[in-house]
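Following up on my earlier message about zinc ion. Here are the inputs again, as you asked, copied directly from the submission form:
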Amino acid sequence: MSNSGKLEVLIPRSLCEVENFYSLKVDDENLASIYIAWEKGIVSELKPTNIDNKKPKKILFPRFVETHSHFDKSFTFEEFPNFKSNYQEALSVNLKEHKTRTTNKVLNRAEKSLILALKNGYRAIRSHIDTYETQDNNIWSELFKLQKKYSSNLKLQFVALAQLEFWSTPNGEEFAKRFSKENVILGGVLVPPFINKSRVKHLLSKTLLLAEKYKLEIDLHIDESSIEPGAGIKVLLETIDRLNIKVPITCSHLSSILSLNDYEILKLGKKIAEKNIKVVALPLTNFWLLNRKDERLSLNRPVAPIKQLQNSLVDVSIGSDNVQDPWYPFGNYDPFYLMTLAIPMLQLSPRDRLTLSSFLLAPSRLLNLNWDGLIKRGCPADFVLVDAEKWADIFSSNLKREVLINGELYS
Ligand SMILES: [Zn+2]
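Thanks, got it. Here's what our run produced:
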């Protein structure tokens, strides 16, 4: 199969770097008409098309990056449904599911997720894996085998999602030490109400110090809540200051801070940016699970205030979170499903550089990928090509797509 080719396509203007851009034709939706060629899997040419009055019929994207998923529990909704559709019930069903969990079940869910993700156009995924004292130890060695098996097509990153208490136990320390070579990220949950705040601070400090000791990153489910706006992020910032520590941190969710006023969000955003903390907004699960009120239809839905955070120079990614499990019953590892829902629900515009950055470029930075996702000469020919001429075609339910990996059609 050939790994060279050429095409005339549309590319969102902010996702490509073109020489001779003076003659570039960009339409009202910021889609640029481009001639692209690649040789041996690498983009060799990128220039404005010279055809007048003829618009290319395909839109080209870099392959996508998923910043937040849970494929250890994906596709469990049928067996473990949550018809109350709230956070508390999701947690309780999740714990029931843990009792039946085996290494094989986790591997099957993970592999099903990976196959879908690849076919739908992802090139990298960060997945949280529930981690607890009674867990079958084999799970991790098998997950690393899976990571290796798919490594030529997709980069897989794991977060060990445990209660913060776990990282203060001998098992937690042993885990961090054992998997430091694999760069497993330490995960935790920091969601109010905090019954004993000083204990929370103590546990968080222990987790941060453990990450520093083994040079690991941290990714927290933080302020995934509709109460006590920003309680978790405030504790985190205080703790980082007190320890004077520099550990790479991702804050996933951060949804409750939407209830703060604009000035408070801006102030908090500046501190988050100063500490180089990255944020992953997860609108689908937030809108689905949080602030549900049985007695009336509540449309007061928390989600990380993406635009305000970006204005404070925080690097914000938008991720999918759960797929067909007690936390969210829909989804199928499809970046276009995510964009189709998230862009209108968050009142973002696909014309905007920062919107597309949050789906493609910020995620590449978050996962520290070799390629930032910008289409330019010398980048890998890793594309998703869709039959579309405008954004409305993309946000339709019957999108036809082709995935190219290193210049070759993936099938
Ligand atoms: Zn999550």
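One observation from looking it over: The chain is about 35% helix and 20% strand. Hope that helps, and feel free to reply on this thread.
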